[in-house]
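Record type: monomer structure entry
Structure origin: computed from sequence
Chain ID: A
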Amino acid sequence: MAQVPTGTLFSIATGFSSSKTVTGITNAEEAVVTCTAHGFADGDVVEITSGWGRLNKRVFEIGNVTADTFTLKRADTSSTAHFPPGSGIGSVREITEWVQLSKVMNPSSSGGEPNTVTYKFLESDVEYSINDGFTATQMTLEFDDDDTTAGYAAMRKQTDNQTDTVLKMLMRSGSRTYLPCTVALNDVPQLQDGQINRIRGTFNGNNRHTRYSA
């Protein structure tokens, strides 16, 4: 069903629990994480640090929680070529606090496209191309030039510290997208006749985003 951007809410993570040791991650269509006495609950949002590069620094909602395990929803680690068994251990931390970014205008995204390598053999008159990963994802948001909001303060602090955070996009339909990132806030006002003064925040992805349907 067609949707419009009106009603979309953006937030950034400003609080994390202490990191907890991950002693095992399974190869499965939804990875099962072993983390003794983790204390998490179904629906919590976590950032995973892993020896698997395709999983490292990514953000997931969790489910099927037991005392010592949980699943990373939509984390498909079934390929043993991409996720060698036994080498995915690391740590996990829960996102405990979000701050909404208010007065958002003109969102745009870039990146996420495939990096393509083109090559040709001398005996052939045809070029070939193969996929070589993906470009980094970046989201840019403009804001009303208001330095009194909680969102402005959070972006300013994270820009100064360059700490890892997460950008959350909640659509009016209820679907959610999480992008692990760092923040770069340019709070020099953009002046344009006939428009309100604006500032700009750029969110540079640390790994691929994760998306959940409503």
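Annotation 1: DSSP finds one helix and 16 strands in the chain.
Annotation 2: Residues 150-161 form the longest helix (12 residues).
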